[in-house]
Amino acid sequence: MAALQDVHVRICNQEIVKFDLEVKALIQDIRDCSGPLSTLTELNTKVKEKFQQLRHRIQDLEQSAKEQDKESEKQLLLQEVENHKKQLLRKTTKESLAQTSSAITESLMGISRMMAQQVQQSEEAMQSLVTSSRTILDANEEFKSMSGTIQLGRKLITKYNRRELTDKLLIFLALALFLATVLYIVKKRLFPFL
């Protein structure tokens, strides 16, 4: 029975060391991770699973220690369990730091996405301004063209008004000449002696 307990204790110790190394490797992977948030979350989940497995093995080892027949072996194993618990506590702190790092990374990625959206909106606004400026320049050119046409129309109207005045004056003079001629002829025919 004691030999079986010794084998169980050795297996628990080996698994604890194995999980400890795996947790250290995963924490290093989290530190080195520069990829997307999903990869960081996946690594974080794996760390949590390994911590859970590590806790179970430490509990198994503690249970085995309590079942030991010899008091000296029992105390030695319980001391080893306490050491493992202290290391687990320090690693849990690392896990919380990794989670904090993950949260900060997620926040920074969110800020980065917001900044990208702002840049996109600024580009769209700039494109809209360029299009509006082009439209205004086209309208200005058309206005200048219309202004030239209006000036030409004004000159023509002024010229026709002068021509109309000249024509009226000529018609009036022609009518006056005609009336004077008619009066002269009537006077010579009716009053030849004058």
From TrEMBL:
User: Which keywords has UniProt assigned to this entry?
Assistant: Coiled coil, Endoplasmic reticulum, ER-Golgi transport, Membrane, Transmembrane, Transmembrane helix, Transport
Topology in the lipid bilayer? Single-pass type IV membrane protein
One Pfam annotation, family name? Sec20
Q: Report whether Transport shows up as a keyword of the record.
A: yes
**Principal place of residence:** endoplasmic reticulum
* Molecular functions per Gene Ontology: SNAP receptor activity
In Swiss-Prot or TrEMBL terms, this protein is called BCL2 interacting protein 1
Q: Which organism is it from?
A: Callithrix jacchus
Report the gene name. BNIP1
